[in-house]
Write a structure and sequence with these properties.
By secondary structure, the protein is of the alpha/beta class. It has a single domain, classed as Rossmann fold. Helices cover 40% and strands 26% of the residues. A six-stranded mixed sheet has the order 6-7-8-3-9-10, sandwiched between helices. Helix 3 crosses helix 4. It is globular, with a radius of gyration of 18 Å. Keywords: Amino-acid transport, ATP-binding, Cell membrane, Membrane, Nucleotide-binding, Transport. It holds the Pfam family ABC_tran. It is found in: Cell membrane. Belongs to the ABC transporter superfamily.
C-alpha cells in the first residue's frame, strides 16, 4: 500500500487581494513522481513554494510526517528544510564558489559534516549527475544544463525525502534540456519521491506516476498520465492538452 508523503488540505494563498491558490487539496505519494502541469499563472510554482513553506499559506494545512507545517516551530521547519529539497529554474548557485563548494556548503553548515566527509559526499553526487569533472569550475563557466545538474547534485547531497523541481528546464537552451531530464528520470527509477512543475509534456507523460492539472489556482483534475493526456475528464484539461499538443 502506498504511503502518503505530503497531504494538502484546502490550501489557499493570497498576495494582498489576489487569491493565487483556491482551496487545493491532494496527496503526494511516497516513492512516486507527481507532475504538475497547467497554463502560466495557474499557481503551480506558488503551490510548490507553499508546500515547502517558502511562502506561508493564507489558510489550510500542509501535512508532512503527520505534522501541519503551517503550525510548525522554527526548529521543526529546520528539520523540514533538511527533508524537502528544491531545485529552482534559475539554478541559485553561488557564483563566487566552485561547483564542489556549492555542494558542500549545505552539508557543512546544515548537516554539520566535517570538510572531508562533505567533499566525499559532494563528489559522489556530482559523479551521479555527470559533473565530477567540473568540481573545481565556477558556475559562470558552465552551460545552463551543467548548472542545473550541479543544483540537482546539491539538493540530492542533503538526502531529502521529497525533492521538488520548479520548471527545471525552462531556463535552458533546447540542447541542454535532455541532459537534465535524463538525470531526473534516473532519480524516478530509484523511487525518490518527486514533485515536478514542468512545461515538458512528453517528459511528464513518460516519467510521472500521477499528474495534477491546475488552472486559475485550482486543482482541476488529477489522474495517471494515460488519462490526463489521452482521456481527460474535464473540459479545461482537455482544452489545455489540445493547445499544448498543437504548439
Amino acid at each position: 500500500m502506498t504511503k502518503t508523503a505530503i497531504e494538502l488540505q484546502n490550501v489557499e494563498k493570497s498576495f494582498k487581494d489576489n487569491l493565487v491558490l483556491k482551496g487545493v487539496s491532494g496527496q503526494i505519494e511516497e516513492g512516486k513522481v507527481l507532475s504538475i502541469i497547467g497554463p502560466s499563472g495557474s499557481g503551480k510554482s506558488t503551490l510548490l513554494r507553499t508546500i515547502n513553506q517558502l511562502e506561508k499559506p493564507t489558510s489550510g494545512g500542509v501535512f508532512f510526517e503527520g505534522k501541519n507545517l503551517v503550525e510548525a516551530t522554527s526548529k521543526e521547519l529546520k528539520h523540514l528544510g533538511e527533508s524537502i529539497g528544491m531545485v529552482f529554474q534559475s539554478f541559485n548557485l553561488f557564483p563566487n564558489h566552485t561547483v564542489l563548494k556549492n555542494v558542500t556548503l549545505g552539508l557543512v553548515r546544515v548537516k554539520k559534516m566535517d570538510e572531508a566527509e562533505a567533499k566525499k559526499t559532494a563528489n559522489d553526487y556530482l559523479t551521479k549527475v555527470g559533473m565530477d569533472n567540473k568540481a573545481d569550475a565556477y558556475p559562470a563557466s558552465l552551460s545552463g544544463g551543467q548548472k542545473q545538474r550541479v543544483a540537482i547534485a546539491r539538493a540530492l547531497a542533503m538526502k531529502p525525502k521529497v525533492l521538488f523541481f520548479d520548471e527545471p528546464t525552462s531556463a535552458l537552451d533546447p540542447e541542454n534540456v535532455g541532459e537534465v531530464l535524463k538525470v531526473i528520470q534516473e532519480l524516478a527509477e530509484e523511487k525518490l519521491t518527486m514533485v515536478i512543475v514542468t512545461h515538458e509534456m512528453a517528459f511528464a507523460k513518460k516519467v510521472a506516476d500521477k499528474v495534477w492539472f491546475m488552472q486559475d489556482g485550482q486543482l482541476v483534475e488529477e489522474d495517471t498520465p494515460g488519462v490526463i493526456f489521452n482521456h481527460p475528464k474535464h473540459e479545461q484539461t482537455q482544452h489545455f492538452i489540445e493547445q499544448v499538443l498543437l504548439d
